[in-house]
Design a protein that fits this description.
The complex is a heterotrimer of chains A (666), B (219) and C (249).
Chain A: H1 15-22, H2 28-31, E1 35-39, H3 43-55, E2 58-62, E3 80-81, H4 93-103, H5 110-129, E4 144-145, E5 155-156, H6 162-180, E6 183-186, E7 189-197, E8 200-208, E9 214-218, E10 221-224, H7 245-252, E11 257-258, E12 263-269, E13 292-296, H8 299-306, E14 320-321, H9 323-327, H10 337-349, E15 361-364, H11 366-380, H12 387-413, E16 422-431, E17 434-435, E18 448-450, H13 468-488, H14 502-519, H15 527-541, H16 548-568, H17 580-604, H18 628-631, E19 633-638, E20 647-652
Parallel strand pairs in A: 1-2, 1-10, 2-6, 10-18
Antiparallel strand pairs in A: 3-5, 4-5, 7-8, 8-9, 11-17, 11-19, 12-16, 13-14, 13-15, 15-16, 19-20
Helix pairs in contact in A: 3-6, 3-13, 4-5, 5-13, 11-12, 15-16, 15-17, 16-17
Chain B: H1 2-5, H2 7-37, H3 39-51, H4 53-83, H5 100-103, H6 105-133, H7 143-150, H8 154-181, H9 189-217
Helix pairs in contact in B: 2-3, 2-4, 2-8, 2-9, 6-8, 8-9
Chain C: E1 2-10, E2 19-28, H1 34-47, E3 69-71, E4 74-75, E5 97-102, E6 110-112, E7 115-116, H2 119-126, H3 149-159, H4 166-170, H5 177-188, H6 191-194, H7 197-210, H8 221-225, H9 233-248
Parallel strand pairs in C: 1-5
Antiparallel strand pairs in C: 1-2, 3-4, 3-5, 6-7
Helix pairs in contact in C: 2-7, 3-5, 5-7, 5-9, 7-9
Classes of the chains: A alpha+beta (666), B mainly alpha (219), C alpha+beta (249).
Amino acid sequence: MALDSKIPKGPLADKWTKHKSNINLVSPANKRLIDVIVVGTGLAGASASATLAELGYNVKTFCFQDSPRRAHSIAAQGGINAAKNYQGDGDSTHRLFYDTIKGGDYRSREANVHRLAEVSTNIIDQCVAQGVPFARDYGGLLDNRSFGGVLVSRTFYAKGQTGQQLLLGAYSAMNRQIGRGKIKMYNRHEMMDLVVVEGKARGIIARNLVNGKLERHSAHAVVIASGGYGNVFFLSTNAMGSNVSAAWKIHKKGAYFANPCFTQIHPTCIPVSGEHQSKLTLMSESLRNDGRIWVPKNLEDVKAIREGKLKPTEIAEENRDYYLERRYPAFGNLVPRDVASRAAKERCDEGYGVNKTGEAVYLDFAASIQRYGKEQAHVKGLDENDAALVKKLGQEVIRAKYGNLFQMYEKIVDQNPYETPMMIYPAVHYTMGGVWVDYNLMTSIPGCYAIGEANFSDHGANRLGASALMQGLADGYFVLPYTIGDYLADDIRTGKIDTNLPEFETAEAAVKAQLDAFVSNNGTHTVDYYHKKLGKIMWVKCGMSRNTKGLNEAISEIKALREDFYKNVKVPGTTSEFNPELAKAARVADFLELGELFAKDALERNESCGGHFREESQTPEGEALRDDKNFTFVSAWEYKGEPAKAQLHKEQLNYEEIEVKTRSYK
Amino acid sequence: MTLIASSIGKKLAMALSGLFLVVFLTQHFVINMTSVFSESLFNEISHFMGNNALVQMILQPILIFGVLFHFTMGFVLELQNSKSRSIKYKSYKGSANAPWVSRNMIVSGIVILLFLGLHFYDFWFPEMNYKYVEVMPLNPDRYFEEMIHKFESPVRVGIYVFSFLFLALHLYHGFASSFQSMGLNNKYSKAIKSITAAFAIVVPVGFAVIALFHHLTAF
Amino acid sequence: MMNLTLKVWRQANADAKGKMETYQMKEVSPDMSFLEMMDVLNEQLIEKGIDPVAFDHDCREGICGMCSMFINGEAHGPDRLVTTCQLHMRKFKDGDTITIEPFRAKAFPVIKDLTVDRSSFDRIQQAGGFVSVNTSGNTQDANAIPIDKHDADKAFDAAACIGCGACVATCKNASAMLFVSAKVSQYALLPQGKVEATDRVLNMVHQMDMEGFGNCTNTGACEVECPKGISLENIARMNREYLYASLKG
């Protein structure tokens, strides 16, 4: 099947408006006859469910958590971008569009990104109307802050809990529709497979996680909003339950999977503390405004620190290597996420890591504390040479800015970051890749849509801070509800889809067979054993820096691990009870396939762009080197029986509005 | 009527009846206090309270209703609350997050109820008997004597003092808490807490002092 | 490294009769989070052929509200302003015995072991925890109504509730007043929410009562154990709103 992105013709700025007025609609009376399934209740899924129900469709929404409010969008800290230009600093739809394309290292679709920038302002209006308590200034108007990679203040926020507040807003909109009976909510239900009837997505097989029963649910369209697949690395900032299964199941039924190797590795996370580690915690990007990143210059100092004989504060200024400031004098500690992450890895690989595991660098606030302290002393007319006083005043400023983050760090690491530098290390955070969708957000299976982080999205090869929330809500509130009508207009006479169709039967039988096989396997190793092994392969060979040899090894190692998994995995309990281990096994089985495709995609893309760094493609100074001539395309993989046989389709990216340039932060 | 059926309505009813009882308690306290300073004043007020038609026919029934209502509602709420957690915790560290008094209003309440029984037996029943059953002649000077007589027994005085301790505990939480139930929690709450706490200590201690005073000076 | 004795509530399903089981944990690192310690326990149980302990958890960074253990007699354990996932083993000593129970309330029936059903919270929100505004794309501009920063901040503080249910689990009466009042307060403080304030508070409180939660007796335990520090002021505000709404009819 050829890839058709269905981008409307005409000037970029008019595409969305024109498209909206040209596509087919479903009349209000007919919407009542149409069922839509939504899988996932993060920002994208919750907002889509609510809006579709408001329009009149019968919506069935599924989430594996005990309540839709717990989806992992809730954990987003920083904020949400919108081209409101409330600050009058020259922001505009075009500027947001441009920043997003550039930040994505010229690997995203112009038309989609422009639409995203257009609807961004509607999102803020909608959320405020719902009662989302955004931060405000003393005049009672909305406050903004600035985020990495841009020159304007366009980020709206609610302290460090923006994702939570936005999700609760979307959840409240859903609740209203659940109360009206327009959404039927299925908590603690996991989508096990997609049912395709005559080439169209017509329903899903879901498993009630409480009693283990398999259920058939039919609909005229299925929307996948199940988030990203960062957990393929085992350790990530994703939630424990975040998984690729829904996206992977539709991939296996015919949806193309795009750019699986595009992963965002966030530079400031709390390092791994030991073998028991189950997940990683992010420390907001904003910390890099005031923290200086360094490692010792001398390996003897590193050794002494690891042995506990030396404290970081005892290392003299001249013996410290502020490597970001050294390598990128123009941007310093504020280089984009991908660059900062790679630089930390480079130092640690050379043996300069400062914790027991050798995988941590310092994020030091001492200089800022001094600077702020002196400033405060000056303002207050106190003695600027009183070291203790200056430190105290400086710490107060830092506390006011980052108090909650410092407290969180102290709870987890048990060290006081006001006194000693924080230790940080990059961690997997977000996946730009995902299910391939056209301009209407429809996957390559008719009637099956993918929204939010689950699709390959608008972020190209690297996502800017505060853009994930924007995309999730844009898709769910303002894009999908329009575009889905274009498809559903043909279904007004179809009537209810019968769940006794043979396609449902076959799909259910296959799911049952897989689950039965797990519990009767009588293996030796737990599910986590395999998940951790997979994570290790992914992190070492498909992580921040990738090369041909490593990727080839990864492909064969993952394949072997997957075979071992099916032979030797041990899943306790039965299929007909609340069995979290069984649910986990099914998810890890899918990660074990996705991981291989991930490596295959990374191998295929022999260029460095955004979060994807190929060692073979770098400048003499070790900077990422894009290859626009050969790789200005989206890789869309078609499933052919197993990941190794996946077939690549290329969607060429055409830049009409934007001139493609090299990113430089020197 | 939905108001009183709701959990918040019941709480409001508890708060209002409680506050009403606080007002009564204040009045009772002031009258008792006069007994320490002036036998004649005490007799005069007691006689007025015991024979004024408004007090006897209107206020007294309202008071009795208030007491019964507060207790009944207290038991109803307690019963409902214990049903809201049918399987109890094996380990429950209530002291980690709330003071004993606030968690045991039912205990202090029951002690006060038992005390009320004794108190009625001591004063109210004989009084009713005197006035309405045997219909004895009016005697405006008998009250002080009768009261002193009651406090001769050290056991009774002991029980009274013990009960006042529980009254203090009950008031300590209940008085301040009634404001929260009525929806009042703002910048004045700190002041309210201090005032109600002072009341919860002063009044029961005062009652105890009066009892002890008469016990010790009776000889 | 620490050695610990765990006493854990085991209950096969909603209808089964549960009981406490004792497990020995060896070499627990003080840097582990409580849930990582539970992960290790489960790995060991699976290897021994014993059914692992079922417990709810997801984000493991203190924001999703899914984890819900009652540890040594306190919701989310002995530390303050943290959820179970952010409680670390350094809060315990070598040789300690730790009792782990599910959040208990009639309105939170046990599903299995330490996992409980908190959908009663969802139903309360469905009764009125929202502003009735459709997604049209032409809602009025976000800055059309300025909001007093003081009120906006208070609304945010109320909205910080993660819906974990620690307030219910902690309350001696299993009352859900802190949770419900946080939601009622958030909307009552914002002009967008004021329009429907009367119906909202009446409907949400009605649903709360139907679910079988206990009554608030103002002990204040919920505020102390709340991982997000939601204030009792919200309960007073809800009482106020409710009385006003009832009188208004």
